[in-house]
Every structure is written in C-alpha cells, then in structure tokens.
C-alpha cells in the first residue's frame, strides 16, 4: 500500500480525494487541514507521497513544502489552480523539490473531479516512485554552471558564422530538440543554465504542461539562464542563442517560410497522447532538417512520448541523449528511448549541458 497524505484546507476536496484514492485499492490515505497539521503527521504517518494545495491560509503551500523537504523529503505533488498566479507558485514549488503538479478542478468540484480522477491516481502513483533528494537539483545546477564556464572558454566561441546567423543571413547549423514531462521544469533549469548565451543551435522544448503554465515557465527560464527563452505563441523564426518553449495544449512544430525555419504552435494532434508532443516536434524537424544536424534530448517524464521519434532520429544518423535513471525523477520517457536502443548517450542530468555544448560546437 502507498501511504498518501492529502493536505488541503477544503473539507470537500479532502473527502473527494480520500474517496478516489481509497477506491484505487493500493493507497492508504491520511489527511491534513493545514500546514501545521501536515507537519505533525509526517512523523506518525510517514507518507510515501503527498498532495499539497498551493494556496492555504496561515502556512501557504510553498512554506509547507520547504519544511517538508527538510523534515521528511518525499515526493510531493502540488495541486494548483490554472491561473497565472497559480502557475508562478507551482513553478517555484517544482524548483523547491516538488516532483509534479495537478490542476485544481474548476467549476462544480464534485463533478469535475470525477472526470480527472484516473489522471490523478496515475500521476500520484507515478510520483510515489519518483527519486527525491532535497538538494539534488541545486547540486545539479551548480555542477552545470561550473561545467558551462569551462565549456565557454574552451569549446563555444563566437564566430563570424554565428554573427551572420544572428542577423538572419544564414539558417542555424542545427537544432536541439528537448522533451520532458514530470520533473521537467527543474531539469530544464539545470540544462539551460549550463548553455552559453551564444549557443549556436536554437533549442526547442516540448514540456508537457497546460497553456496557463508554459508562459510563466518560459519567463522563469529567461530570468534564470543566459539564453533568450520565449513561449511559442505564434510563428517565430529560429535564432541561435534562443530557446523556444512549446505552448501548452498545442504542439510545437517546425515549418519553412520564405526560406527560413520557423517554430509555430499547431492544434494538439489527436494522434498523440501528451502535449506539447515531443514525438510530433521531432517528426516535423526531421522533415526539414538533415538528421545529422539534429540533437534530440529526452529528460525525465512519465510515459513514452519522444522515444519513438528520437529512436528513428538516431537510426537515420542523428544524435540523441537520454537522461540516466539515476538522476531522472521519473525514468519513463528516457527509459523508453533506452529500451528502444535509441539513445546515443545516457547521461546524468548534470552532464547533459556539457554534452550539448560539445555536440553543437562549430
């Protein structure tokens, strides 16, 4: 049985969550009405996974999460409203150590929660098996930045070709195609922080998220990294030194307009289960760019999205990197790539940025 602690100030939400997870059959559920009560339950209940409301009176979810990660580090899934404020707080929670988030049901709670109950159970069950170390991502970030400094001095050098590309006179020499899901936002912090501002290959990112979250995610990464990071909410020409985050609830695809490669949002494909779809992003790139000019990177995430397309990319002559099981929060997506023999390299998260720098060096 999986010991689950539900922390929520809403009595109705606590009751519905208890019913859903009890009926699932493999959960033992305890509840807490606020942060103080939750901290008191850590010792006697010893939860293996926690769902935590972001917005609570007295002690909000971020403060409570910080204390949990000190007192009883374990997988925490944030329950957040689909608002910009909720998205900002949730991204901060993921940076503090939460492994995933769930959208808080809107409208009639008792009706809406029945619709999303299967996803709730699947994601909390997956989170229960996630790898958690309280300072893990901080250590990764520090290692990545140190490595990037060394790389910028020895490998990545501004060149005339790069300047011409930046001015729009030449297409990018290649593209980095990066996919992730559960545990992705803090992993993106680590990888993008290790890339220099003059990275010659544009970076395209498909992170499974609702549309309310991808804009705040792009702005957060833009503040934290040397790259210029934008959300793809319209057709955008691809430029070196830029990272492009696919807009939630759409798919990020490539097209060619007036001879230039552009990234643009496309309606979510019914042929793909997760969105923005990593498989679809890679497939669209392979139609326009030679495989040896594509670098596929598959990071932590539940499911298999990206594994099939990146395996075909490697078979066609492209290069692919799968995050190692030892650092992935959930080794679903990168593990599926490895199982298909589709990974050119299997690397700890702290090594991925350096590998990208080596692969795209002029």
Verbal overview:
Helix 6 (136-154) packs parallel to helix 13 (349-360). The protein is α/β, with parallel strands linked by helices and 362 residues long. The chain has a seven-stranded parallel sheet with strand order 8-10-7-6-13-14-15, sandwiched between helices. A five-stranded parallel sheet has the order 2-1-3-4-5, sandwiched between helices. The radius of gyration is 20 Å and the shape is elongated. It has 13 helices and 15 strands. A hairpin with a 2-residue loop joins strand 11 and strand 12. 43% of the residues lie in helices and 22% in strands.
Our count of helices gives 13
Kindly, what is the distance between the CA atoms of the first and last residues, rounded to a whole number of angstroms?
A: 53 Å
Widest beta sheet: strand line-up: 8-10-7-6-13-14-15
Structural category is alpha/beta
Biggest sheet features: 7 strands, parallel
Radius of gyration equals 20 Å
State the total count of DSSP E strands. 15
Which blocks of ≥5 consecutive residues have pLDDT under 50? Answer: 155-169
Estimate what percentage of residues fall within beta strands.
Answer: 15-25%
Shape: elongated
Mean model confidence by pLDDT = 87
Along the chain, the helix and strand elements come as EHEHEHEHEHHHEHEHEEEEEHEHEHEH
Helix content class: 40-55%
Topology of helices and strands:
Layout: E1 2-7, H1 11-24, E2 27-32, H2 35-45, E3 49-53, H3 61-71, E4 76-80, H4 84-96, E5 100-103, H5 109-128, H6 136-154, H7 160-166, E6 175-180, H8 184-193, E7 203-207, H9 211-224, E8 228-232, E9 236-237, E10 242-246, E11 250-257, E12 260-267, H10 278-286, E13 294-298, H11 307-316, E14 319-323, H12 333-339, E15 345-347, H13 349-360
Helix pairs in contact: 1-5, 2-3, 3-4, 4-9, 6-8, 6-13, 8-13, 10-11, 11-12
